[in-house]
Amino acid sequence: MSIPSELAEVESKPAVRLELRDPAPRRSRRKLVAIAGGPNCGKSTLFNKLTGLRQKVANYPGVTVEKKAGFCALRSGSVLELLDLPGTYSLRPGSPDEVVVRDVLLGVQAHTPLPDLTLLVLDSTCLDRQLYLCMQLIEIGRPVLVALNMMDTARDEGLDIDAGLLSRALGAPVVPISARTGSGIAQLMEAMEREVPPPRPVTRGLPEPLRDAAERIARMLAPVGPLAALSRFHVAMALLLDEGEEDSLIDAAPIPARREVMTLRARLDAEIPEWRSHEPIGHYHAIEELVRKATLRVKPEAKLRERIDRVLTHRVLGPLIFVLLMAVVFQSVFMWATPIMNAIDAGVSALGRFIAPALPAGPIRSLVVDGAIAGVGAVVTFVPQIAILFLFISLMEDSGYLARGAFIMDRLMRGVGLSGRAFIPLLSSFACAIPGIMATRTIDNRRDRLTTILIAPFMSCSARLPVYALLIGAFIPNRTVGFLNLPGLVLFSLYVLGILAAVLVAWALKRTALRGSRPLYVMELPPYRLPSLRSVLLTVRDRAGLFVQKAGTVILAVSIVLWFLASYPKSPGRVLPLEKRLEAVEDDAAKAAARGWAAEAGAKKAEAAQIQNEIAGISLRDSFAGRAGRLIEPAIAPLGFDWKIGIALLSSFAAREVMVSTMATVYNLGDVDQTSVSLREKLRHAENPRGGKAYSPLMAVSLMVFFVLACQCMSTVAVVRRETNSWRWPIFMVVMMNGLAWIASLAVYQGGKLMGLG
Hints:
- Among the domains are: 7-195, Rossmann fold (3-Layer(aba) Sandwich); 208-271; 317-509, no CATH class; 573-622.
- The strands form four sheets. Strands 3-4-2-5-6-8 form a six-stranded mixed β-sheet, with helices on both faces. A two-stranded antiparallel ribbon has the order 1-9. Strands 7-10 form a two-stranded antiparallel ribbon.
- The longest helix has 39 residues, at 317-355.
- It starts with 6 loop residues before the first helix and ends with a helix.
- The protein is of the alpha/beta class and 758 residues long.
- A hairpin with a 5-residue loop joins strand 3 (68-73) and strand 4 (79-84).
- Helix 8 runs antiparallel to helix 11 (255-271), helix 15 (363-380) runs antiparallel to helix 28 and helix 23 crosses helix 28.
């Protein structure tokens, strides 16, 4: 693309105020504005400012994957509909999210009309990388409004940008803003309200065969239809250059034009083998000249960022710092949350004791206290750990450090045949595998995307954290190893185990079923920024809120179902003699108390409690849940698990954290006096039928290893089915992960017993 001839003269002209046309006449629908821009340019922050909607605002390339909508109320009273599109560097898509951007801006996206205006957000600190997309948008021939974002940061870095010169050169309005501080937002909203004219046509130098081919296709395009409102020449070039897997653009062209595109591509390959590179080369020549004229550096470039990056991205120091930082995070997750967790645990127990006397003895009291309160309360106890984990993740994300983490991990990823692009979905999977799997849409290589989907569930998601915390708190002694806390070290090791398992599985898949070439990954390292406290706290609140919401819906429902399955059917043949004996013992206790024989009354009450526990144990063993647990007990006994843990394993397929509420329900049914002993204490002191300890630290480690590696979330399976459009890969994932979990758990437990650790 060549810059219009008047660019050579604008340096001598004074900056002019942008004059936009009067507001458009009233429309039958709201004016649709698409917000486009490169990754990490501040689109989401601006969208947040304009709409008031809470949205994830992160300093990380590619964080916005799906299209998001909102409404912007203007001073005049009119309302604009805004679309926040995924970040992209170009309209030549290389991944599914970039296809969405192109299709929306060209008007071929299903159920989305052609935008009336494109609001292009540019990062003013790196215009040379941002203007390529701007050049392509101008060529479309539709109205474009440029928001020159992060002007405050540009000034701090010593950059003086002439917005007026940029506007005249591009033929589109340019408004300097800072979405973070709100500077210039009012002027931007005023510009959005007015009718923005389409940018003037541009010319660029192209080889004659390529220009002739594009003009030939342009003449074949229909005068009506989805592409009729665009520049015909641009659409023709897009059709020639669009060779991806998605067919949405080529399908919008007439059938004769589609055939001609295939013919002309073959002809150009023969005449000019490098013809595909002429478009970006021409654009970047123009961009280099434009940036040189419009940008002035008024003070030397700061070198602090480079010095920091030399350390944080160093081949040796970088990974060490990353691992140490992660270790500090998990130490903090365990140590800081413990006092709050203990307080919540005590509160849940007190709530059960308070409500129990108000309910009639029998099934209703058991349902409310043993089922609902015990089940949900056991999971809610772990909210502080969830909140602290996301506090650290959000701080690192907003500060720009996680981009460096992705750069560091790229070396490891390349070793198994993936690229650093896979790090983003895998990192998201530490929160939940579902958004992590959906984030793989940013990976353009199909085999790499499928591999990343299959290994994402190995990352220890937040749903596993309550299980880890329960078992570590019950069986791992709270002592220090060197300068590290042992429970925190064990927790960190579990996360590392999941990462290593993912790496090994990816290595195997990329050399067998999903063999392919090693991908190239280009990553932009964003500048370091001070995290927004509001954004961080909103992230923590939303993540913790989702966890609590899940506890109040899914886990509550599962707890009630499990209470029923663990309470019925009754076994009158075995229980009736014990109930008669219990009645006699309670009568003896009452008589002894009436006569003032305190010692005998206490002994009889203890005997009655023992009989009640025996009745509860028989009822649980003969219940539906007990039968299911005993059915799978032969398969899990070699791992150190009994039938009660078998019940928890089966229920955890609904959601992993349900394992905690299941164990609480199972053990609370035998806790007839409603003592305040926590679930951790109950597990620690549980006895087997022979009178010995039911569980040991070795069993706890075996169970945690199983939970690290097993696929126990039906929601994850459903998302994998949707993303792969096949049941083949979800079934393969479930069999592979659960088989690997069983083998690893078997090795841990049996190996530990051979070493005398059982």
